[in-house]
Amino acid sequence: MEQIIAPIYEGILKGDMKSVKESVKHALGEHIFPDTILKEGFIAAMAEVGHKFEIGEYYVPELLISARAMQSGLEILKPLLVASDVKPAGKIAIGSVKGDMHDIGKNLVGMMLEGAGFDILDLGVDVSPDQFVECVKTEGVDIIAMSALLTTTMPNMKVTIDGIKAAGLAGSVKVIIGGAPITEAYAQEIGADGYAPDAGRAAKMASN
Amino acid sequence: MIDTQKHKVYVAPGGDRIDVATGENLLEVLSESGVFLRSDCGGKGVCGKCLVTILESSPADDLPFNVTKEIPENEKSFVPGNQLACRLTVHHDLSIQIPETSLISPEVIQKPPLSIQLPADLHAPRKILGAANDYGLAVDLGTTTIAIYLCNISSNTVIASVSVKNPQSFFGDDVISRINAVRQNRLTLKRLQKLAAKAIEFGVASLLKKSQVKAGRIKKMVVVGNPTMIHLFVGEDPDSIGVFPYRPVFTDAKTFKASDLSLWLNPSMEVSTLPLISGFLGSDIVGAGLANETRLSDTGTMLIDIGTNGEVMIRGKNGFIATSCATGPAFEGATLRHGMHAVSGAVDAVKIDGKTGGVSYSLIQNDLKKPKRAAGICGSGVVSAIAELLRAGILLESGQFNPEIRSPNLRKGDDGILEFLLVPSSDAVMGEPITLTQRDVRSVQLGKGAISAGVELLCRDVGLNHPKKLLVAGGFGNFLNKEDAITIGMFPKLSDENFHVVGNAAGLGAVISLFDPGSRKKVEELIASTHIKDLAADPLFQKTFLSSLSFSQ
User: Fold this and answer.
1) How close A116 comes to chain B (CA, Å)?
2) What global pTM score does this model have?
3) Which of A158, B5, B139, B328 sits at a 20 to 30 Å CA gap from B379?
4) Containing domain of residue B247, as a range?
5) Helix (H) or strand (E) run with residue A27 in it
């Protein structure tokens, strides 16, 4: 079985979309469980991509092409996962905070979280605290992931967390934050549940 | 309880004595007394550049400093008694010595616009026989560097110029962190205003001394800068520039009496600022446009001013399109492990022998008498190093150090990640080797990716694949090697006759405005014919930016 999964893993690391798609189809033809392909192929490969990013071996473009290759395989796998009742690792709503129009970092984190087996709800950029709160109420998300690139917009993370608390939802959702100006100390100060310095570590943290 | 206890800080060798209240931060206290230390990280204790030596503290057995937990990587090599001024709160009388490498000194600018030709139509005004000469100052107030030109406005000549590091860096490297500093504490606005004024005076004083000109003869000053710098300089809160839709409080040209802006060299001098275009397009690009007015009349000509923020404008069929891109401070030497501003001691060019892998480099050296030792690497040095590493195959196009290649200088750093040794410790001022880290390479990739994405999208808007002619402005451009910049994919490949390094064009624009008040009309026309492009709002931006990150040409 390892031999059948290995090309998927390698294909994602190389960012080879075509080979990932073909290898996924081949693995399914060999009756490998979709759940196994997801865990040992996709999630394992994206964890390695995250690690390579963390140590500086991969950079944004490599992360992106790997994530795209993973997504192309996931498209084939998703209906089968649903059919076989495999539950995602959790549901995460992600967005850049109010006043912040930057989305590249946020998109990368979204892809890495997807690669870690989560169901992702992308709220886009300039997301108001109310939108985040509303989303917790109606979408049943387990984690809110907020991004801010500017020191001038990061205070809106606190406003959002305060809004979640005020709505009495603090116990039902976890909040993780990230972005260039964010630090661990800031995350603690505003009462976030976690901070990740990069996309790979965001995925690692959400999984724990 | 209000702690009114006072302490004295003696600064050797000059013997300055500064009165300090208990608990005050040493770096801040020194800046406010006009002693400017380097602090690329803005006083966060990260860059390790504001090193001071504690000669004596009283009582001697009690350490006077409260060093916080965040000890920077390079602090490991500090000898006892050496401390970072930004991490030090004063609780005792202190006697300190400031190593030369920690001190900001006004640096003589030897490059344009001193040597540049003024526009032909700018003739010297007719001099009234026997009348004394009047002087003026042109200032390019940059986020990182302040360039000051002393000019004779009776003969329309630039006499001398200096550059000073902007001490506002204490409140952050980029405009956003300074806006945020004001947001957190309104009193900071006044301090930032004063710091800019103090730094300008600091530079002007050295110009006057060197040129034997009396302060009273200075009649006017013209200041250009990015919108946040201009807001801070005139004491206006730049808050609205910090969040979408990034609107400035004002865009018009303003005039003040020097004393209203805490400038005391000649309190009655007239100080004016040139108009701004938008929240991120300031009077710096306006000044650069004015200085290159003739060249910019050709359709397809592009002007790039590279500072902490990159500003780009292109001449289309109907006027200009202009945009700003977040270059980051890497090209000004900040954020790099051993980065520094382009002053004496900075590595400004690197050569790697293709066969032996041996490294040689050149240094900026303004004082030939001083020993030739490297203190760090500046923006053009980094571009040069990366270009050479790419040519030698040590760095891959993806920006990753090639783990397969054997090079005597490629080694694993303390963090286990590959880094490249540029200057061995024996040839470095601080006795610490100067390296280029994987992280440094990544921050250059971000900066150059932002520029080349901006260039590509602006060209597209005027129906071109690449600019017909490129004018590169900014202090960084002065030392920049064109081939190196093209090799790393920062600029499109253009022939020599279509690629011009135009020096500090923003500063030259301020000089022209100083000489020719009539040029203000041209400035207004330039702004009226400029269309502002929001790069991030372009649907192609993300794709273009990401594909611009690699070092392929």
Assistant:
1) 23
2) 0.80
3) B139
4) 107-283
5) helix A17-29
